[in-house]
Write a structure and sequence with these properties.
mainly beta, Neuraminidase, 27 strands, 49% strand, globular, SMP-30/gluconolactonase/LRE family protein, metal-binding, zinc, hydrolase
């Protein structure tokens, strides 16, 4: 069993094949983020936010440039029809890529003012898209095109299947990664003061605060994913931390760089792709995730 797996509970190693190894698929980046597996193309697409490009990797073609410039795209997901959705720091918008390759703006204003810099996005089972809107893309010149903050805060928004935009969460300092634990439970990472991941109850267009879900002891949770059995896979300063639904640590995948985000993918949905600072990493698992 690979030495990169560090168990906190006895059954952690059962989540991986006996011969599981952490592999660096590509390197030479500046800050990798936002991986998403695209089944129709058989590839993972990810961002280098500071390099202002997106890239794709597949087993057949290896690493290929996807978009240059990317307008500092960060987080990605697929919508209910399998189309790529992107959070753009530079355009201060959430965008959707159409079949012909063009981009449609899904959200760029709230109540007449520009969004801050959409960061990460997740698909709810009802087909809505939820995204976070901190200010990293306007605060950090290397991660966007600058500008003034026009919103009164850093919020979480919901794009309904019909395109209607609503503001769902307003009580976080710097909302960042998000993932649905179920159709009524949302996990939201806050990378601001007292960084932690919080649990919300989804009630229609809104989300009600429940409790702090967990804190990690190495860095801050940025991106996170949930597998088919409800385990939480969180980015961390030393790799990927895996927790149960109650927020108890099961174990870690040790990665030699700070991890920003991750996604499940591959033909069977059981491969984990990890974006970590200058590299794209991969490890085989025995679980299904999204």
């Amino acid at each position: 069993m690979s030495e990169v797996l560090q168990a906190a509970q006895g059954n952690f190693r059962e989540l991986f094949p006996e011969d599981a190894e952490l592999t660096r698929l590509a390197d030479g980046f500046t800050w990798t983020e936002g991986p998403v597996w695209i089944p129709a193309r058989g590839c993972v697409v990810f961002s280098d936010v500071r390099q202002n490009r997106t890239w794709r990797w597949s087993a057949g073609e290896g690493l290929q440039e996807e978009m240059n410039p990317s307008h500092h795209q960060n987080g990605h997901c697929l919508d209910a029809e399998g189309r790529l959705v992107a959070c753009s720091h530079g355009e201060r918008a959430v965008l959707r890529q159409e079949v012909d390759g063009s981009w449609t703006t899904l959200a760029d204003h709230w109540e007449g003012n520009r969004l801050n810099s959409p960061n990460d996005v997740a698909l709810h089972p009802d087909g809505s898209l939820w995204f976070t809107d901190p200010t990293y893309g306007i605060d950090k010149p290397e991660e966007g095109y600058g500008g003034e903050m026009e919103q009164p805060g850093r919020y979480v928004y919901r794009i309904a299947p019909d395109g209607a935009l609503s503001c769902s969460i307003q009580d976080r300092h710097k909302p960042n990664g998000l993932a649905f634990l179920s159709d009524t439970e949302l996990l939201l990472a806050d990378t601001g003061d007292n960084a932690a991941t919080h649990l919300y109850r989804v009630v229609g267009q809104q989300a009600e605060y429940v409790r702090e879900a967990f804190q990690i002891d190495q860095g801050k949770t940025d991106g996170l994913r949930v597998d088919a059995e409800g385990r939480i896979w969180s980015s961390a300063g030393d790799g990927v931390h895996v927790l149960n639904r109650e927020g108890e640590e099961l174990g870690r995948i040790l990665v030699p760089e700070t991890v920003a985000n991750l996604c499940f993918g591959g033909a069977e949905g059981n491969e984990l792709f990890i974006t970590a600072t200058t590299g794209l990493y991969h490890i085989q698992t025995r679980v299904l995730g999204w």
